[in-house]
């Protein structure tokens, strides 16, 4: 089993800026897209809970850039579990240019989400990480990869 969940996509011209490289905000969009595909593929029960009172709130997000991506590059976004602390989950992301030759790391990101529920009056209340999400994430932890 891979030590990461992988989402692949091709960079579009809409992802680039006037200079021709991928505009930095798209890396954050891709984190969200990878996370959403992960939920759909690995923990669909969580998506059902999100239609109810469960809320996943991004509380921290970062990205370091090492090389550029351009239109029509294929990118592999690889998500793994960075850590768990109470009701918070940190996910690590590696962005790799793939195609001819070995994959090349072009950026590295991190995102922390908090698990909350809507309480009375719409107030957000911290809750335990849902079991299906925890089990799905555990498959991509550094311990599982070892």
UniProtKB/TrEMBL annotation:
Source taxonomy: Bacteria, Bacillati, Actinomycetota, Actinomycetes, Streptosporangiales
Alphabetized Gene3D superfamilies for the sequence: Hotdog Thioesterase
Pfam family membership, one: 4HBT_2
InterPro entries hit by this protein: HotDog_dom_sf
Protein name per the record: Acyl-CoA thioesterase
SUPFAM superfamilies for the chain: Thioesterase/thiol ester dehydrase-isomerase
């Amino acid at each position: 089993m891979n030590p990461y969940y992988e989402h692949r996509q091709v960079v579009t011209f809409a992802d680039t800026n006037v200079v021709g490289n991928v505009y930095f905000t798209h890396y954050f969009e891709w984190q969200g897209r990878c996370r959403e595909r992960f939920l759909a593929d690995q923990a669909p029960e969580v998506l059902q809970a999100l239609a109810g009172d469960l809320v996943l709130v991004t509380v921290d997000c970062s990205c370091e850039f090492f090389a550029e991506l351009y239109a029509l590059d294929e990118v592999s976004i690889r998500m793994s579990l960075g850590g768990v602390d109470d009701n918070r989950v940190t996910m690590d992301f590696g962005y790799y240019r793939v195609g001819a030759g070995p994959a090349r790391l072009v950026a590295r990101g991190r995102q922390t989400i908090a698990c909350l529920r809507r309480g009375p009056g719409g107030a957000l209340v911290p809750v335990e990480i849902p079991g299906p999400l925890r089990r799905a994430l555990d498959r991509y932890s550094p311990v599982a990869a070892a």
